[in-house]
Specification:
CATH class of the largest domain: Alpha Beta
Number of strands: 14
Largest sheet: 6 strands, parallel
Order of helices and strands: EEHEHHEHHEHEEEHHEHEEEEEH
Radius of gyration: 22 Å
CATH topology of the largest domain: Rossmann fold
Number of domains: 2
Strand order of the largest sheet: 1-4-3-2-5-6
Distance between the termini: 29 Å
Shape: elongated
Strand content: 25-35%
Helix content: 25-40%
Number of helices: 10
CATH superfamily of the largest domain: HUPs
Length: 313
């Protein structure tokens, strides 16, 4: 997958089949759209293209209200990793600004999709809106398709057990610690990519040495406090591990601030300091962590380690 930042240096993209959106989570609904644009691209000897925006529009448009506490399933780095695995040919990351937010839906279609990208086919998700004040939609695309000579298609909603899959439903599941439900919606495991550093003394002193996991992007959603069964992918190898999310000031809410993320790797004693790693979540084993009572903490970690060790992953 080729990643482009803006529309100025796209080079030659053959018969672009395009979709747009945030695609936070790269969930099963997003994958349905990606699979469809890949299929159309193959049929017309073209290439698939996703146009996404960074920062998220709500962060720019409503920085003091709904954008202020908006958390993301994926960091930008994680999103690029998963989109690449999904088989996308091109990702165009557009810098979202207040000025860009004033571009009308018609101007976006004409100036960007047609003149800069030369889109041959446009696919949108159910009830997708774009352009200034979200004025553009599938009906506008359909009406303009003959005038500008592109194909257009709308993908219906994706349901799992009669519940509509969306980034919002997945965020809710993650914030409640319901990892298995979130993974089902995502159609892949929830992931954290971060750099590993020296763990804190709380866990070393009870014989459960840890590594800190440093998240490189603010706004990344961290599940609630507890112990999680995860797979560590590092240096082309995989390791079973426990991820410990804890705070000195429990709030009951999933917020980045004052939340610590540490990793205990089962049956391994090597050094990972300063290395990047990918963590794939399987299940929440237990709730909050009491780091202020060493005896209770050790017992909690021992019981969690037994449960993690019994899991098949």
């Amino acid at each position: 997958m080729k990643v482009h930042y803006g529309f100025d240096d796209l080079g030659s993209i053959k018969n672009p089949v395009v979709t747009t959106g945030s695609f936070d989570g790269v969930h099963i609904g997003h994958k349905t759209i990606i699979n469809r644009i890949n299929e159309i691209a193959r049929n017309i000897d073209g290439e698939s293209v996703l146009i996404t925006f960074h920062p998220h529009p709500r962060k720019v448009l409503y920085p003091e209200t709904e954008g202020k506490k908006l958390l993301f399933i994926l960091s930008q780095r994680e999103k690029i990793d998963l989109l690449s695995k999904a088989g996308l040919d091109h990702l165009i990351v557009v810098k979202f600004t207040l000025e860009f937010s004033k571009v009308s839906s018609l101007e976006f279609i004409k100036a960007y999709l047609m003149e800069k990208l030369h889109a041959k086919f446009i696919v949108v998700g159910f009830n997708h809106h774009f352009g200034h004040n979200r004025e553009g939609d599938y009906e506008e695309l359909r009406k303009l398709s003959n005038e500008y000579g592109f194909g257009v298609e709308e993908i219906p909603e994706q349901d799992i057990q009669q519940e509509t899959v969306s980034s919002t439903t997945i965020r809710k599941a993650l914030m409640e610690g319901r990892i298995q439900r979130a993974n089902a919606y995502l159609d892949h495991q929830y992931i954290i990519i971060g750099s590993l550093g020296k763990g804190t003394h709380f866990f070393n002193q009870v014989d459960f040495p840890t590594l800190t996991v440093q998240i490189d992007e603010t706004g990344k959603l961290i599940p609630p406090e507890g112990i999680y069964a995860v797979t560590l992918e590092w240096n082309s190898s995989s390791y079973r591990a426990m991820l410990i999310v804890w705070s000195n000031h429990p709030t009951g809410e999933s917020e980045v601030i004052d939340r610590n993320v540490e990793l205990h790797i089962l049956d391994f004693s090597g050094k990972f300091y300063n290395d990047d790693a990918k963590l794939y979540f399987h299940k929440r084993i237990t709730g909050g962590i009491d780091v202020n009572n060493a005896q209770r903490l050790k017992h909690q970690l021992q019981e969690a380690a037994k449960l993690v060790d019994e899991l098949i992953f």
